[in-house]
Every structure is written in C-alpha cells, then in structure tokens.
Automatic annotation (TrEMBL), chains A, B:
<dbReference type="GO" id="GO:0016747">
    <property type="term" value="F:acyltransferase activity, transferring groups other than amino-acyl groups"/>
</dbReference>
<dbReference type="InterPro" id="IPR055140">
    <property type="entry name" value="Thiolase_C_2"/>
</dbReference>
<dbReference type="InterPro" id="IPR002155">
    <property type="entry name" value="Thiolase"/>
</dbReference>
<keyword id="KW-0808">Transferase</keyword>
<feature type="domain" description="Thiolase N-terminal">
    <location>
        <begin position="4"/>
        <end position="213"/>
    </location>
</feature>
<dbReference type="InterPro" id="IPR016039">
    <property type="entry name" value="Thiolase-like"/>
</dbReference>
<protein>
    <submittedName>
        <fullName>Acetyl-CoA acetyltransferase</fullName>
    </submittedName>
</protein>
<feature type="domain" description="Thiolase C-terminal">
    <location>
        <begin position="237"/>
        <end position="363"/>
    </location>
</feature>
<dbReference type="Pfam" id="PF00108">
    <property type="entry name" value="Thiolase_N"/>
</dbReference>
<dbReference type="Pfam" id="PF22691">
    <property type="entry name" value="Thiolase_C_1"/>
</dbReference>
<dbReference type="InterPro" id="IPR020616">
    <property type="entry name" value="Thiolase_N"/>
</dbReference>
Amino acid sequence: MREVHIAGAAVHPFGKSRGKTAADLGYDAVTRLLTTTSIGPDLIDVGYCGSSYGGSLLAQRVLQRVGVSGQPVYTVENACASGASALHLAWQAVASGAADCAVAFGTENLSGFGGGALPLTTNDIEIELGLVMPAAYAMRAQRHLHDFGATEADLTMVSIKNRRNGAANPRAHFQAEVSADQVENSRPVADPLRLLHCCPNSDGAAAVLVCSSDLAREIGTPTVRIRASVVRSGRFHTSYRDMTWPDITARTAEAAYEMAGVRPSDLDLVELHDAFSIAELLHAEALGIAARGKAHRAIADGEFDRDGRVAVSPSGGLLSRGHPVGATGVVQVCETYWQLTGQAGRLQVPAASVGLTHVTGGGIYGVDNGACAVHILTSD
Amino acid sequence: MREVHIAGAAVHPFGKSRGKTAADLGYDAVTRLLTTTSIGPDLIDVGYCGSSYGGSLLAQRVLQRVGVSGQPVYTVENACASGASALHLAWQAVASGAADCAVAFGTENLSGFGGGALPLTTNDIEIELGLVMPAAYAMRAQRHLHDFGATEADLTMVSIKNRRNGAANPRAHFQAEVSADQVENSRPVADPLRLLHCCPNSDGAAAVLVCSSDLAREIGTPTVRIRASVVRSGRFHTSYRDMTWPDITARTAEAAYEMAGVRPSDLDLVELHDAFSIAELLHAEALGIAARGKAHRAIADGEFDRDGRVAVSPSGGLLSRGHPVGATGVVQVCETYWQLTGQAGRLQVPAASVGLTHVTGGGIYGVDNGACAVHILTSD
C-alpha cells in the first residue's frame, strides 16, 4: 500500500440552508477545494460522495458542475459514517495505486425534512417503536450515570466545552457559548438529555483532496498523512449488551491504532462523534483517551480542553458545529487537516501533530449496530 | 493487482414482491449465495450493496441477518449502475489485496413506488420537465430510426428476441414470449416506444462472491475470472450531442477491452442494458458488437440470438428479466457466471468462454450523463 496524503480541505459552513439542495452545498465545498488547492478538475481520477439523504447520482450532480466529467464517481451511504466511508474508499483507491488523486466529500441538507426523526428507511421499525436516536442515547446515558457516578452536570460540561470551542469556529452551526443554566433549563428531549445536550440537524458539506506522495509534492499545498483509515460495522446481538460500552468504536479504533502504529496517548486531538453529550463520555472511553467510567472526570479536570492533555472536538464537535449526516465524517478530517498544518487559527491546538477522527452512526437492531469509521492523521 | 474471481452467484427471482423490502430481497439472495458456495459469513472480509432506493444502512440490514457481523460494509449508489459499482468496489478490494473475499449484491423493491417515474431526487428537474426515461429513450429512438433506416418493426424484434430468451429463465420477471402483434398493439408510452418496448419496474436481488485465486481454489466452486471492471460517468454537455451515440458506453467499454485484452469479436455473449428496445441498438453499436447504424440488421439476421455470432442478453435482458435498479448490474454477472461455467441450463450459449456485462443509468443534464459500468469475464 502506498502512502496517502490529504492535500487540501474545504467546507460549506454548517447551519440552515433551506434554499440549497445537497448538490448545491456539495458543489460549493468542492469548488472551494479546487480553488484552495489551485488544481483543475481533470487532475481528479475518481470521486466519492458520502450522503444519506441526497438522492440518486448525487456524486455526478455535484462533480459534473465543477468539471469532473467522465471520471468514475460513486455515492456511498453508511448513515453518520457516510462521509468517512467515502474518504476510506478514496484512501483505498490511492493506497492501492488505482488512483493518484481522489476527491472525497460529504453533503447533506436536513432542513428538507422539516423536523422529526430522520428515517433509516420507509418502514423503520425502530422509529415506529419510538427508539429514535435521542431515546437510544438517553438510555445509554441513564446506564452510564448509574454505573459510574457521573451526573447530569457532567453531561452539561460536555455541551459547555464544545460550544465554547465552536464559538470560535466560523464554520460551526452554533457560534455562541452556552452556560450551565442555559443547558440545564433547555427543554427536555429524552431524560436525562435536554435540547442543548443534543446536536442540531444541520445542512452543510465538506471536501478533501486525497492523493499520492508524488502528486502531493507536485500540488505543493500543506499536506498531512493518512496513517489509518478503518471502517467497521456493528455486531448483531439480541442478547444482553453493555450499553455503556460502544463495542463498534472500540473495535474500529483498535484496528486504526494498529494500522497507524499510534497509541491513544500519542494523540494531540480527537474529533469525536458527540451527537449527544453522553456520546463524548462513551466514545472517549472506547477510544482509549479516558479510563473506563472516568471520562467525566477527565472533562471536569480540563483534560479535553483545547490546551488540555488531548483536545476533544476543538472545532466544536457535532454539538456546536452541527451534524449534516454525510458531511460530518469529512468535516472532522478538514478540521484536523487545518490543525496539523497549523492553519486552524483561533481553534489551533498547540503543537498538534497527531489527530484522530471518529464517527459512528445508525442503530439498527440495537444500540450500536450501524457503521463506524476512524481515521488517524499525522503531520507530514 | 491480483487476479480476481467470481466463485458463486445467487438471485432472488425478479418480479413483483410487494410484501418484501429491499432488505428482505437482498437477504434472500445473499443467503442463497452462502448456501450455494457452502461458506460461512465469517469468511467475508467486506460487503458492498448496490441500491438506489433501499434506504440507509441497507448493506448492514441485509448482511447482519446472514451473520456478516462486524466487518466493513457499504451501500453504493450510482443509479442503474449501482449494483455494478458495488461489484467494482469489491473487485478493487480483492485486486488490491485489501480483502480476500467480498460479497457484492444489489437489491431493490420498486413496487413500493406504486408506479410513475422514479425520482432521482426530491426536486428532479428532468421529471418536472417531463424528461422521464421513456421520453429520453424515445427521442434517441426517433433520431436513430431517422438516421439509419431502422423501423419500429426493428425495435419490436429486440423485444421479441429478449422475451424469447427470458421465457426460458426461471429468474425472469416475464417468462412468456411475445409476438410482433402483441408488441405493436401494446399501448403507446412515448412515440415510437410502446409498452412492450420498455422494461418493467421490478423487485429483486442478486449477489456474487468475489475472491482471490487462493481462496477460490479453497472454496472449490466453479469460478470465472474478472478480466475487466470499469466504471465511468457521463461527460457534461450543454451543446449539441449525437443522441444515437452513447458516448458513456463507448468510453467505458473501450477501457474495459483494453484492461481485459479482449476485442469485441472475442465475445461469446453480452448482457446489455436494454431498458428500452432502442437501447439494444444504441449500446450494441457503442460496445462494438455491431457496426454503427447496423445493429438492427444484426438482430434481423439472428446474429444476437443465443446461437448467433454473439448472444445478446441470453437471459432475457431488462426487457424480460426486469429491472430492479440496484440489482441489475449484479444479476447480469450472475447470469454470465452461469454461462461461463456451463450452468446456464436452457439458457446456455454454446461454448461460451468470454462474456461482457453492461449497465448504464441516469440521465441528468442530458441523454447519457449518469454512470456506466462494464465487466468482462472469462472462463477459468
């Protein structure tokens, strides 16, 4: 397998873009990517688009508008891991030598749904049963608080930290800090989760340029190296499972650490799938950046702050940056690219050289049976 | 790149399955595949599902039910080329050494739409303008008849041939021959196309096992070799284009012939994307198995019959076998696998050793701006 680099990143700011389709948002992000990297569309050998709700031939509808015309392109779906799956396939194409230059992007317009639970399919039995995502995470939260002595105030600290981070991010859906009072008085969604413990449904798009070493040198933009790209699916269980242990995250991360030759203690920053505040506790422990049952302590001690032991979601995370499903896995990599190339501005994590991105999505037949993706990036 | 083989194929018969979801149909096909090949789900390193309308996490919803649990799986969308795109990614994974064994399947339930044009997206401008698929192909037919002297009777011959082939196929949606009178008196859809010049919207699923040479030997089932796997997208045009020349098919086929080291004259059979009778004329010419403007003559002379110069759609094609969008690209490969391993029964093409499969779909911004895939298979 060849070394693979990211040589550019671009984002259509997340938020509410009711007038724009997923194709419009994706077009904006990819156009910015080509402008930033000063490359022409002919250089792109292959394109991968991650989206859950963007419709048929979305990759073509975006890429043909920027002039990627004739090359193979694909739209990939893997729930919240759709964008990261697109990136994984781009990485695989370049690593295997099948391509020298790939564009991976994610795009989504969730405003189109007008609110309510996002359906996995037209007859989604979990939604019919009321097991929507906030309910599933609320159950996990109840169990975590019961088992490990965390409190609702600990969940609130996650929201406060990530909103504080996102307040400095011009690409974030929410760019304002929140107080403990605001979080604790926001309306209940699924006990113990309140509105400000939940990420918003957002619209947005993000794109990265994935290329070989030779081409990266030729393009001449700042680059980072993809040291690991791993996708896994959930394991089917009908029997008891520990709701406080996201097995899918642990397995995916383990494979990524092995591929990268990196330990959790080597990480300077992590962009984590904090779809709900409890998710940061669960996944931080499964990623190995906090001991089991101790993530809330790490947060209380400032260890996950931007200047802490390991910055967790310095860009604001899903809680602040927002969550346009297919775009999230890519924007995490964009933000990490800027961190590792010293371009993160007010978001910059000091001396960042190793970063990890993590998305996990879906929940069919149980609490973590969807898809998960972990990427580990290092400075070049 | 390593040699890649197909070591098994299975199909859920095409037709109307209103009570089954796309996941149910896919589950049936993959279950049959595991039974046929006598392998356990643990052997599968990765899974790719092709579908346009099956919803989120479809690959997981199918594969977890057969016990593929934990491995990376992806759902891929590329309109009518979705299934073939899934196969291409499986081929790439095995060819590059990233996987030894992949399952590629396609599944779709179109009954759920209840009739009418299939939307590409929620605001499909082509459908709003009336440029639905039958209309697009009708315009191409008008031009082809005008330019090359074919007649409506020539279009009818395509339907008669492919329905005759499909009459012997137990997996086909339509298993009855049709007469010229029946075709010519079926109701008009888009002049000159009548109902029996159009493929049906079908439900169905198909699956293949893709593996390395070593694993193929170990499994011990009959195998064929994938000699070429090529996906391309349409080229954007707003100016004049020749509607009788499907550039996307020609470009994709040219790359496939080069990769395989095979010429059109080497082909014993072709499974072609005959979504409409005119499509067989257009694509046969672009695939190089008939001279430009002469495909109708080849059909009239019996050259595309099962025992002719090159059998075209000996399984019945889309016109007879039906067209569950995401499944079509995979079922073509299943049928070709059975042909090249001498298991095609009443459909058998004599001494078949080289086969090509072709799908093309979509039509955004023009007549052939979607996705196209060509696979070339040879006997092992």
